[in-house]
Amino acid sequence: MPANLTTLLIGLIAAAVVLVVAMTGAWLVQRRTGNAGWSDAFWSFGTGAACVLVALLPVAGSGWPTTRQLIVALAAAVWSLRLGSHIAARSRAAKEEDARYAALRREWGADFQRRLYVFLLIQAGAGWLLTLPVLAAAQNPRPGLTWQDGLAIAIFVAAVIGESVADRQMRAFREAHAGQHGRICDTGLWAWSRHPNYFFEWLGWCAYPVMALGLGYPLGWLSLVGPLLMYWLLVHVSGIPLLEQHLAASRSDAFRRYAERVPAFFPRPPRG
Could you give the CA distance from residue 190 to residue 81 in angstroms, rounded to a whole number? Predict the structure, then answer.
């Protein structure tokens, strides 16, 4: 049986506190460095810590974490450490602020710091919502491990590998074409999707519903929050729209040709 309601509520409140502390730290760091791109690393680490916390909440009738709980906690930790480390390394090496945050800095002007802090707290809220699918998968009372758990693990591993490859290909492209303004990475996975890293990020969150959903387990439906929220954020809010607005302005002709032949999100084989 899942943990009792009091335990779940305490765990979710603790997760919220972790995320608020993490994003407050992000705000303080960007004030010191002048690079708000660090915020994404703090969000990744904070969300990962909150997810591990809720994944390991006691299951009723069990004094120790179940195997499923340990798998879910490990998945959350791997996701967080890989993504957070990648963003931190990118922010450390960057000579300019992340284009998305630079645009917000120009738009918000003198009110940037106040509005950014509110924005980061909203991000903390999004991170908290992502703890719900992790909680739902970890608390699934289905005895033992089943084919659903195996499929979920396979999806998650494929997503982590795919996103890592996409990030590595983009990093290699930037290093090979440093100083060549106007170039677009359109090889490898980037010939299949304009944002393969975002696609694989979304795919990873699809693993939790596969593990969580089942007859007689209403809490499992919370797992759908992960892929639905991540798709909305990446495709319609803070991912693709802001980045492609920057690309269209800075690499207009090259990006227009790229967008005509390569889909924005879901991959498909390259054309011509």
Answer: 23
Contacts of 55 (CB under 8 A, 6+ apart): 69, 72, 73, 76, 134, 135, 137, 138
How far is the C-alpha of 242 from the C-alpha of 31, rounded, in Å?
22
3-state DSSP of 57-86: CCCCCCCCCCHHHHHHHHHHHHHHHHHHHH
Q: What is the DSSP letter of 53?
A: H
Q: List the pLDDT tens digit at each of the 272 positions of the chain.
A: 566 788 899 999 999 999 999 999 999 999 998 888 899 999 999 999 999 999 999 876 666 899 999 999 999 999 999 999 999 998 888 777 887 888 888 899 999 999 999 999 999 999 999 999 999 999 999 988 999 999 999 999 999 999 999 999 999 998 887 766 778 888 999 999 999 999 999 999 999 999 999 988 999 999 999 999 999 999 998 889 888 887 887 777 888 888 889 999 999 998 75
What CA–CA distance (Å, rounded) separates 104 from 123? 15
Q: Which region holds residue 132: left if phi is over 0, alpha if psi is between -120 and 50, else beta?
A: alpha
Instruction: Give the separation between CA 137 and CA 205, rounded to whole angstroms.
Output: 11
| Cα diameter, the chain | 62
**Whose CA is closest to 195, among 252, 241, 149, 240?**
240
Two structure tokens written together for 142: 């289905």
Place of tokens 């903390």: 124
CA distance 80 to 75: 9
pTM given for the model: 0.90
d(CA 242, CA 240): 6
